[in-house]
Amino acid sequence: MARDAANREQFRPDDHDHEHFLLTSVVGSYPKPTWLNRADDLVDDPDASFDEADLEEAHDDACRLITEEHERTGLDTVVDGEMRRNEMVEFFAERIDGYEFNGPVKVWGHNYFHKPSVVEEVSYDEPWLVDEFEFTDAVAERPVKVPITGPYTLANWAFDEHYGDSEALAYDLADLVNEEIEKLVEAGARYIQIDEPALATTPDDHAIVGSCLERIVDGVPDEVRVGVHVCYGDYSRIYPELNEFPVDEVDLELCNDDYQQIETLADGEFAPDLALGVVDVHDAEVESVEEIKQNIKQGLKVVPPEQLTVSPDCGLKLLPREAAYQKTENLVTAAREVEAELDAGEIEVPARDAPTADD
């Protein structure tokens, strides 16, 4: 069942102009400045006078830059664009005891992925993201969201050479994610997003993901908003079962197929908040404000305004940076205009009983 999603109000800016509030955010990744990619390469070049301290400074500068860029768009909650991270599994596997790397694996075309192997029982040593969060939180004027690759994905996108049981591995990893969230909450984090792209390709494992989430949120205070992001897939295979996920928000990638699955989600009561993808992260063409407003209204077929979060479909990192910025800025403008129309009674919202945490 969904957790108490009333915690979204803490992200309403003090200067918010409208009675209605559509929470705006991003999923996580954002295009890296070209010079940061060069810095990542230089630190591995033995002929370059560029060391880890220089790279840390470059990462700090990039995180500061992208956080401020997000704030200029008007987002209610910001992310540092994951400037310090490489690949979403690799980054965490490097920090979790029990993983090792044995070279890149070809995944498609000429693209390679440093797929890790689990060679012993996974365990938690030092915090993975606390320093990252504390830096971003210090430079940001808006609340900071922390994306974390979920345990189901960390288990299934690795070679298992120890457990022989991916479900058991996922549960152990979920316990580690819970430890990390405890540290993040102690540091002041109030918005956590669990990324589970692997569920999109194996949707019949939704019960395993649900059990992982139960472990993840164990002991997490109600005022901490926890969401889960699931990349594009056949959502009919995880809905209405996702109503049982113990999260405040479920983030779905619906824009890139022109909301063909929206009626599936509108059938019945959608229990958690819906974080609706309203811009396509696979197309560099920037949607107009009017187009995005129509996309936002698709979400109102599923949940009332007080349960709707507005975000891109997925991470923006593969787009040109200017396109990513303009899409995000238009997303915020569209959300504010829809709020004004809701305030004025110009948008008819389907009547429904809002689900409670006990539903």
From TrEMBL:
Q: Which domain of life is it from?
A: Archaea
Query: What EC number(s) does the entry state?
Result: 2.1.1.-
Q: Does the keyword Protease apply?
A: no
List the keywords (alphabetical): Metal-binding, Methyltransferase, Transferase, Zinc
Gene Ontology terms, MF aspect: 5-methyltetrahydropteroyltriglutamate-homocysteine S-methyltransferase activity; zinc ion binding
Q: Which InterPro entries does the UniProt record give?
A: Met_Synth_C/arc, UROD/MetE-like_sf
What does the entry give for GO biological process? methionine biosynthetic process; methylation
> What is the required cofactor set for this protein?
Zn(2+)
Residue span(s) of domain Cobalamin-independent methionine synthase MetE C-terminal/archaeal: 23-336
Name of protein: Putative methylcobalamin:homocysteine methyltransferase
> Is-annotated flag, keyword Zinc?
yes
Q: What class of enzyme is it?
A: transferase
